[in-house]
Design brief:
alpha/beta; 7-stranded mixed beta sheet; two-stranded antiparallel sheet; globular; binds glycine
């Protein structure tokens, strides 16, 4: 085996959920030393790695080599086609069949190595195979490191909508290796950044101020700023998940920008025109603009967000999506209705009283939502 540099754990966050608590490790050279971050012995266990074809030969191979060098009884890897289409019933059962065909037992461990698709799909498969086997999240995109890998939401998409079938099932650890982000396309890095900003906008204006001053460094490869941003984001998510695992109340705030964003993604049918983080950025601006329209938020705060997204190379309007989408506001509002956050026929909106002051409401007149969508489509 090749020499591997020592792991440098720069910081940790902790999700505190009684016997389902776990650490999030953030640092450099982590995946080649992954054995050091597993919270139990692999001795005699069957180990499974789920990844995708984009990273099978790179990060997948690094983790495979590290785990083959452990006390595990066996190590096997399955690689799936990248893309949202993989979060399907067919692929879910491909994964469960692979585990069962290889005699997985309840001591077996699944490592999900990839972005949100692999994390959500693999986590779901782990939660239902043998009524639950342990799994470890190894997110390889910024978006997955700061959001989808933390908090135990697992899911597949259904013809009726995104993430409509899934479970709450916590991983045993999350391993965020900054080095894997070095090969991430810039567009994906920017899209992941939208989820970092989200935490600041929910409840921390001083974090937003810090990001306004520093975040451009992330796009220029400043590892310290990247590490600190991921750490703060993961800590913020951990705090919320530790208080409200099953989204009974405050966890819903993490959906800031998602009500509008999911409708845009669904309209585009995940054809690559818009990445999840880009949809969230546009959705956040729509949520701020709606809050301004309702008299709850200042125009200055909404303009500040738009300017920040522009500085970070993120879209802030539906008009920015290329090729242009031809949806009507009515079509997008109908798509919001197929979101799982609908209750008694009313869509849940995350609105704001200003930067760092998000709140949830279902008392929104859809006429106002229509106007906001139309504005977002105009020059
Ligand atoms: N991505 C939102 C949540 O985990 O609750």
């Amino acid at each position: 085996m090749n020499e591997v540099d020592e792991a440098e754990v720069m910081s940790k966050a902790h999700v505190s959920l009684d016997d389902r608590s776990y650490d999030i490790h953030i640092g450099r050279n982590l995946i080649g030393n992954i054995n050091e971050m597993i919270p139990f012995s692999l001795d005699g266990r069957k180990v499974f790695i789920l990844t995708d074809d984009n990273i099978e030969d790179t990060h997948g191979a690094t983790i495979l080599a590290a785990l083959e060098n452990s006390e595990a009884a066996s190590v096997q890897m399955l690689s799936l086609k990248p893309g949202e289409q993989t979060k399907s019933v067919a692929h879910l059962f491909e994964v469960t069949n692979w585990l069962l065909d290889n005699q997985a037992d309840r001591q077996s461990v699944l490592f999900t190595v990839g972005g949100g698709v692999i994390g959500d799909l693999g986590g779901f498969a782990a939660s239902i195979t043998l009524r639950g086997i342990p799994y470890i999240q190894v997110p390889t995109t910024l978006l997955a490191q700061v959001d989808s890998s933390v908090g135990g939401k697992t899911a597949i998409d259904m013809p009726q909508g995104k993430n409509l079938v899934g479970t709450f099932y916590q991983p045993q650890a999350v391993i965020c290796d900054l080095d894997v982000l070095r090969t991430l396309p810039l567009r994906e890095l920017k899209a992941g950044y939208a989820e970092i900003v989200k935490y600041a906008l929910i409840n921390d204006e001083s974090f937003f101020l810090w990001l306004e001053g520093r975040a451009q460094g992330i796009l220029k490869g400043d590892v310290e700023t990247l590490a600190r941003s991921i750490e703060i984001a993961c800590r913020k998510k951990s705090e919320i998940v530790s208080q409200d695992e099953k989204e009974g109340n405050i966890r819903a705030l993490l959906n800031l920008g998602h009500t509008f964003g999911h409708a845009l993604e669904a309209y585009c049918k995940y054809d690559g025109r818009i990445l999840h983080g880009e949809a969230v950025a546009i959705g956040i601006v729509c949520a701020f603009r709606l809050s301004v329209r309702l008299g709850h938020c200042s125009e200055a705060d909404a303009a500040r967000i738009e300017k920040h997204f522009e500085t970070m190379g993120l879209p802030s309007k539906i008009l920015d999506i290329k090729p242009a989408i031809k949806a009507t506001s009515k079509q997008l509002i109908d798509l919001m209705g197929s979101d799982k956050k609908v209750f008694q026929g009313k869509v849940t909106f995350i609105l704001t009283r200003g930067i760092g002051k998000a709140y949830t409401t279902r008392e929104v007149n859809l006429h106002d939502v229509e106007r906001i969508i139309e504005h977002s489509m105009e020059d």
